[in-house]
Amino acid sequence: MHADAFDRYYAADSFLHRLDPRVKVVTVVLFILSNALLPDGAWAAFGLTWIFLLAANSAARLGVDFTFRRSFVALPFALVAVSAIFSPSGQPLAHWTLGSFQLTPTDEGLIRFGSILLRTWLSVQAGLLLVAVTQFPDLIHALEHLRIPAVLTTIIAFLYRYLFVLTDEVLRLLRAREARSAALPGLKSGRTVFWRARVAGNMAGQLFLRSYERSDRIYNAMLARGYSGQMRTLRAHLITRRDGTFLAASIVALLFVQLIGRIG
Amino acid sequence: MHYSPAPLHIPDGFLNLIVALVFWALTALAVGLAISKTNRSLGEKQVPLMGIMAAFIFAAQMLNFPVAGGTSGHFLGGALAAIVLGPWAGILVMTAVIAVQGLLFQDGGLLAMGANIFNMGILTAVIGFGLYRGVSAARNKTLRLAAAGVGAWLSTVAAALLTALQLWISGTSSLKLVIPAMLGVHALIGLGETLVTVTALAFILQTRPDLLEFDKVAEKGGRGWILAGVLVSLAAVILSPLASANPDGLERVAGQMGFLQLGRRAPFQILPNYTLPLLGATPLSTVVAGAVGLLVVLGLVILLGSLLRRRGK
Fold first, then answer.
1. Do B164 and B297 reside in the same domain of the chain?
2. Binary contact (B63, A200; C-beta < 8 A)
3. Residues of B numbered 244-273 whose beta carbons fall under 8 angstroms of chain A's beta carbons: which are they?
């Protein structure tokens, strides 16, 4: 497996790609915060937010529908919000009887449900765009600048660095299981669920030991190369005037969205 | 590479801002403590070890096993990480895993990340390690494995319970539907978690028993963890059937305690209904209230900016 198998970065030469990662992280957090602060049913403000998002998409030169096409990852979770439709307050719209359940969708509940979905859908797209225009090591470095403890960011950097190595390990374990599990077509192979879970457990234990011992080897190799508990980076992050202007413009845009959401 | 989202990661938009911030604060506190504790016990060696262990948990979540009808069991790993690495290191490892899942794969939101880390990293560490620590002195291997198994199941169920409660307080789901749904699904998922955790632990006990010697386990977390683990487990055990059997009762109690109003009320309602009491309910009042809110946000942003600039220099 290649080292960038998990990468979500899309290389392009655009304004957003060149922005300082810190500015990008702060803008995305403010964007998500702004979505959370918008009252339910502020459709105009949600629409405006989406327009900003589309503008950002095209500024990234990845295509206007770049994040839209990838934005449905959080959709399965929407199931838990479905019950918001049957909110006790508000005007009832209909009465359904499902077995012993009495379901009464209300207008307020419907507005709440739609708003939750929109907030999630917009926030997910901001996150998608962030990792598409920022290389992950830069993102972690930015988090460190933003006062996330260095221990944590370094652990995250390690996780990212070795994830594909351990995934290779997992794929080897899975291939070995496949190879052991011959099956005739149409016949059930393997034994009970318990037995299968135990096989998976043994694989997890095996994977743990291989990882644990690998971390020892990595640590020794790092010591040999002069590791002193500190990660160093060659890429310096500099905030330029352009970054400042972008941040200021985003803040003004988000404040405008909030104003529309409150008045409209 | 295929990556399938796990069912407990709350995306942004589902949690009320106050709930999200409260859990961010709790998580930041616990993670800060964990950092200082592991710094003392492991030193500089901790970082590569915990980094690889985080990658291990991430990769182990791909080890699915077919259950029935095309569905497959998954492994969350919080309890196993806490038992093998100790509770503090376990918390850091799970924090890193959930951070990457949220940042890179959009599996779980950024504002909701505090709650996600709390549910899947901290709660699971307290229950998983606490229960295991209670019997870690026992020579009987079966007893230790049984405690780990119970801890793994209970930590999954407790995480689901807390997730459901957070969604309910945020006004996203009605308690009547979310509690039985979440608990039912995760009582089953928890069984898979138990089997995988117990087998993996048995495997490690057989091949590297030195990692799980009593002295080592005791060094990673004191007796306080037993108390915390037992108390949290009891709370989960008592609350789960109570909440699923009588959600209306729970809702009523929470309402009486003023708990529900706190969650449902958004923070901008410091200015009630977006108006200033002084000016009455006039359009002018709404505009002024909006302006006050904007100024507060702007102040925060400027503060953040100056912090940033100082770091940049």
1. no
2. yes
3. 266-268
Q: Within an 8 Å CB–CB cutoff, is residue B17 touching chain A?
A: yes
Same domain, B304 and B218: no
The two tokens of residue B197 are 């955790």
Residue B202 identity: A
Query: What does the alpha-carbon distance between residue A97 and residue A95 come to, in Å, rounded to a whole number?
Result: 7
Per the structure, how many domains does chain B have?
Answer: 2
Taking CB atoms and an 8 Å limit, are B199 and A127 in contact across chains?
A: no
Q: Please indicate, yes or no, whether residues B212 and B285 belong to a single structural domain of this protein.
A: no
Residue B218 φ/ψ, nearest 5 degrees: -65, -30
Q: What domain range is B145 assigned to?
A: 17-264
The whole-number average pLDDT for the span B46-62 is 86
> Rounded distance, CA B52 to CA A156, Å?
9
What pLDDT is attached to residue B290? Answer: 57
Nearest CA in chain A to B47: A155
Question: Are B248 and B283 in a shared domain?
Answer: no
pLDDT on residue B293: 57
Give the pLDDT band of residue B313 (cuts 50, 70, 90): very low
Q: What is the pLDDT of residue B254?
A: 62
State the smallest CA–CA distance between residue A53 and chain B in angstroms. 16
Residue B237, domain member (yes or no)? yes
A25: Cβ contacts below 8 Å, ≥ 6 apart: A130, A139, A142, A143, A146
Q: Which residues of B touch A22 (CB under 8 A)?
A: 308
Pair B164, B35 in one domain: yes
Q: Which of B18, B296, B302, B308 should be substituted to probe chain A, the one whose Cβ sees the most A Cβ atoms within 10 Å?
A: B308
> Chain A contacts of B101, Cβ < 8 Å?
none
